[in-house]
């Protein structure tokens, strides 16, 4: 089954680049503007124009696994609320504990992405982004453009409708009236986050406004826009734990004040605070640790089938494991060890965080076309779950550690 066939033409550099630039232009016109990324003082290709041909059986299996994994996370959230003493294992700042453990009438997350490795040895979830998932614009817009270019069916076509349904559920759960405004925010300098927010905002059915994160005014009594409009409801594509470091021009930690306002429900945020609680990779270790205590037999079977053994120390895994900072992002701080040998390691980020240790499960090879010719990297499958419903896949091909420069590749169903 793996690697997948790729719909490509014989590679010729000038022809390839001309065609790629045309696809980039079409995708940019629809809101996907980061087909290349400027990093390390050069432009890096992010979007491949290859189209992977994937068996329907695998797509169905990933969707079934996504439902099962999301249900396990939901059950785990309930158990954490029942035994709040376990929060110290999650590696999250003490300042956030009361906020994260408050009882809520909302889903623990409305927008999530679970990352899977698919191989001949099975399908395994390696981590979850339940707080601030990206890859939505790639899976919705770029995916559709590339499928049209290759004259093939787009399996992610339902994503837009599912996001609209999620917003309707948010409106009900949060009690947002037709006269209320939902404000959307991200770091204004970050094109990917900003365009993702703009895409989500375009599907919201009531009043909505974008306000740059840098311009939000956190006062003593409330949160406002630069124009003085009070923000009661806020969708934020910005990690909740990052707010703790936000300072005013005078050096005051206004992020802490913002968190207090959220705790006092002066501003209600989406995804809700519980999404950060479940974002911690230590949740994967708790799921494995409490497998026989918290879950039904069918849930235990799902854990054994889809979850890799994950622990708070490397000892049970001997000499083959992946060390992961519990709140790391974009592959930062990860170390991969196989048979006692370090295969790859990032030492630039998140070294001060608590870490968990997950059984090493190799990713399969996948070849795609790039500016420099065919490239063979490691394949990771992201599965977007929108308000509990699998809503579209997001394929990336990169190095052993799937980082920011791993390349996006669209997919279609094998005929």
From TrEMBL:
One of its GO terms (molecular function) is ligase activity. Its EC number is 6.3.1.-. Residues 24-412 form the Glutathionylspermidine synthase pre-ATP-grasp-like domain. The keyword Ion transport does not apply. SUPFAM superfamilies: Glutathione synthetase ATP-binding domain-like, PreATP-grasp domain. InterPro entries: GSPS_pre-ATP-grasp-like_dom, PreATP-grasp_dom_sf. It comes from the Bacteria. The keyword Metal-binding applies. Keywords: ATP-binding, Ligase, Magnesium, Metal-binding, Nucleotide-binding. Pfam families: GSP_synth. This is Glutathionylspermidine synthase family protein. It comes from Halalkalibacter kiskunsagensis.
């Amino acid at each position: 089954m793996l690697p997948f066939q790729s719909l490509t033409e014989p590679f010729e550099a000038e022809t390839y680049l001309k065609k790629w630039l045309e696809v980039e232009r079409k995708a940019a016109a629809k809101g996907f503007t980061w087909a290349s990324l400027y990093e390390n003082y050069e432009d890096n290709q992010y979007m491949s124009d290859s189209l992977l041909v994937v068996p329907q059986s695998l797509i169905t299996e990933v969707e079934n696994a996504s439902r099962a994994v999301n249900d396990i996370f939901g059950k785990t959230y309930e158990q954490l609320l029942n035994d709040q003493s376990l929060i110290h294992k999650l590696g999250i700042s003490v300042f956030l504990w009361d906020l994260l453990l408050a009882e809520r009438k909302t889903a623990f997350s409305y927008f999530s992405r679970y990352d899977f490795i698919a191989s001949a040895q099975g399908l395994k979830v390696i981590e979850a982004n339940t707080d601030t998932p990206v890859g939505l614009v790639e899976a919705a817009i770029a995916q559709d453009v590339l499928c049209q270019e290759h004259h093939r069916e787009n399996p992610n076509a339902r994503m837009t409708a599912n996001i609209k349904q999620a917003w309707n559920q948010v409106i009900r759960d949060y009690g947002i009236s037709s006269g209320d405004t939902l404000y959307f925010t991200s770091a204004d300098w970050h094109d990917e986050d900003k365009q993702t927010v703009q895409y989500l905002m375009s599907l919201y059915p009531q009043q909505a406004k974008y306000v740059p994160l840098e311009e939000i005014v956190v006062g003593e009594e409330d949160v406002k826009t630069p124009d003085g409009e009070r923000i009661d409801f806020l969708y934020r594509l910005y990690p909740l734990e990052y707010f703790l470091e936000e300072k005013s021009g005078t050096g005051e930690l206004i992020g802490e004040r913002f968190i207090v306002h959220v705790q006092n429900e002066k501003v209600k945020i989406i995804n809700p605070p519980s999404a950060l609680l479940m974002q911690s990779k230590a949740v994967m270790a708790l799921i494995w640790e409490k497998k026989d205590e918290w879950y039904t037999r069918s849930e235990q079977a799902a854990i054994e089938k889809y979850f890799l053994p994950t622990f708070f120390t490397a000892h049970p895994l001997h000499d083959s494991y992946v060390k992961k900072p519990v709140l790391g992002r974009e592959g930062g701080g990860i170390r991969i060890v196989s048979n006692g040998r370090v295969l790859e390691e990032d030492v630039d980020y998140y070294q001060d965080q608590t870490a968990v240790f997950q059984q090493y499960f190799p990713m399969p090879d996948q070849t795609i076309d790039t500016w420099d010719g065919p490239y063979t990297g490691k394949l990771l499958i992201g599965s977007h779950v929108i308000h509990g419903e699998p809503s579209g896949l997001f394929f990336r091909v990169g190095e052993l550690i799937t980082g920011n420069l791993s390349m996006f590749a669209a997919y279609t169903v094998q005929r």
